[in-house]
């Protein structure tokens, strides 16, 4: 690193080149990969850089904000869905620089903080989801920075604003049942994680004690609910925009959890796990996964959702993970190609809902414009036995597919009357109530790209996509009887 130049390894892809006053921010803002744009324009690297070369950090700060205020609309347009995230990250960076101990850097950062905070104080910018929560986090930190500069009246206004908006976000996101409505178990974990981080950062500030109490209360509620939906080993299920993730901070709890508000249901008993997804309160991070189930027994994952890879849709497999093709549900193939952003809006207007039947039973249904309707019911009969029943119909007579996504390491034996899935330590047998045609796809390299799952962020691996169809389409129910047993 020279006096005016340095390279920063991005946590996503590529290397960020920073050349003091000569840094080309517009070029960085139009990078091909959206995550690179986010990191470049967030200034997240300035905290570390300031500890090594404070003069270069000030030059980059001046260069960036000169460009930002001249080209604000153009820069914002390069991150249409993440500008609020980007702004929140910059406010956090500026607060960190204010506390750096370098008076010149702190003074320069505070002058920009006053301008940046205006964005977070615009009510229409505070969404009732994790984006809004991150902005409110930055407002809380800014209130401390204003205290440091003896701007106590403004600091008090920021705190009151943060308290009000935080309560509104928690009410919207967690509702009465305590489960995050962002359609992905990972986001429940993300809220808990960030709330704990924020609580640790503000614990020594008496002025923020009320916010601290609110955070502590919500952490407790969200943790209890999250532990009710985690896999039996405490890992985060790869559903919606979640990648599978091991955790060592939660303890999975057995029982039944149901949230008709968010459209999610889970049953756990002695290492066995069955989940059901149908419906939503918010479309944030929603996949086309209505009526999808997942099934596990101990370390054996038998039926899964394909999870989340990234938002880089230049890879058609990544786009596929969000469609019906990546989920173990009851679907009309006519809509397989549709991204959720299209299928839930005009002209298709997909509507879905979950019905908690109490005890160990749940059902869900969805409809689509044009007379399409599907209904699935899941009933736990005993610790080792459960039933799935499917109904479907359409005005056009289009057929449906009963789709099951299975990890590649699971051995499959299948016939027209049933199938058995063999894991490492147990098996899952399924008998069909009628003769079925079947097709298995795996790791398709061309359209429709069926047979992929994501086991780690940013990557996909082959899996099997089992599709069952009846010889003659009918609205009569199809029943699948599932039995857990030993591997042999």
From TrEMBL:
Protein name per its UniProtKB record:
Heparinase II/III family protein
What Gene3D superfamilies would the database entry show?
2.70.98.70, Chondroitin AC/alginate lyase (1.50.10.100)
Where is it located? Periplasm
UniProt keywords, alphabetically: Lyase, Periplasm, Signal
Pfam families from the entry?
Hepar_II_III_C
The record lists the lineage as:
Bacteria, Bacillati, Actinomycetota, Actinomycetes, Micrococcales
**InterPro entries linked to this entry:** Chondroitin_lyas (IPR008929), Hepar_II_III_C (IPR012480)
**Where does the record place the Heparinase II/III-like C-terminal domain?**
261-421
Organism, by scientific name, is Kocuria carniphila
């Amino acid at each position: 690193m020279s006096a005016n130049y340095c390279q920063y390894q991005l946590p996503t892809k590529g290397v960020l080149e920073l050349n003091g006053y000569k840094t080309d921010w517009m070029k960085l803002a139009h990078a091909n990969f959206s995550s690179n744009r986010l990191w470049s324009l967030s200034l997240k690297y300035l905290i570390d850089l300031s500890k090594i070369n404070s003069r270069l950090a000030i030059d980059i700060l001046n260069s960036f904000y000169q460009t930002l205020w001249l080209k604000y609309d153009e820069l914002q347009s390069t991150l249409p869905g993440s500008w609020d995230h980007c702004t929140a990250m910059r406010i956090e960076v500026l607060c960190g620089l204010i506390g750096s101990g370098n008076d010149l850097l702190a003074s320069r950062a505070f002058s920009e903080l006053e301008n940046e905070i205006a964005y977070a104080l615009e009510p229409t910018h505070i969404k009732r989801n994790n984006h809004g929560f991150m902005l409110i986090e930055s407002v809380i930190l800014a209130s401390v920075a204003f205290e440091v500069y003896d701007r106590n009246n403004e600091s008090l206004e920021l705190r009151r604003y943060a308290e009000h908006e935080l309560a509104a976000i928690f009410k919207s996101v967690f509702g009465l049942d305590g489960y995050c409505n962002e359609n992905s178990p990972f986001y429940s974990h993300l809220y808990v994680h960030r709330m704990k981080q924020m609580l640790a950062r503000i614990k020594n500030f008496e002025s923020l004690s009320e916010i601290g109490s609110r955070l502590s209360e919500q952490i407790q509620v969200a943790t209890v609910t999250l532990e009710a939906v985690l896999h039996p080993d405490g890992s985060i299920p790869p559903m919606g925009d979640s990648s599978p993730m091991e955790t060592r901070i939660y303890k999975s709890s057995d029982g039944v959890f149901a949230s008709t508000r968010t459209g999610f249901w889970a049953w756990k008993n002695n290492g066995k796990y069955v989940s059901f997804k149908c419906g939503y309160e918010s479309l944030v991070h929603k996949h086309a996964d209505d009526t999808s189930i997942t099934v596990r027994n101990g370390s054996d994952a038998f039926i899964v959702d394909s999870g989340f890879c990234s938002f880089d849709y230049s890879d058609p497999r990544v786009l596929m993970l969000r469609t019906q093709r990546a989920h173990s549900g009851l679907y009309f193939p006519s809509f397989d190609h549709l991204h959720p952003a299209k299928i839930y809006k005009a002209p298709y207007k997909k509507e879905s809902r979950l019905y908690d039947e109490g005890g160990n039973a749940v059902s869900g249904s969805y409809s689509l414009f044009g007379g399409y309707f599907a209904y699935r019911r899941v009933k736990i009969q005993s610790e080792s036995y459960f039933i799935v029943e499917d109904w479907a119909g359409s005005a056009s007579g289009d057929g449906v597919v009963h789709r099951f996504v299975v990890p590649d390491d699971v051995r499959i034996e299948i016939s027209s009357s049933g199938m058995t899935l063999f894991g490492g330590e147990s098996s899952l047998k399924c008998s069909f109530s009628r003769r079925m045609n079947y097709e298995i796809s795996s790791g398709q390299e061309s359209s429709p790209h069926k047979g992929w799952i994501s086991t780690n962020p940013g990557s996909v691996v082959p899996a099997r996509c089992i599709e069952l169809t009846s010889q003659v389409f009918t609205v009569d129910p199809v029943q699948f009887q599932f039995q857990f047993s030993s591997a042999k």
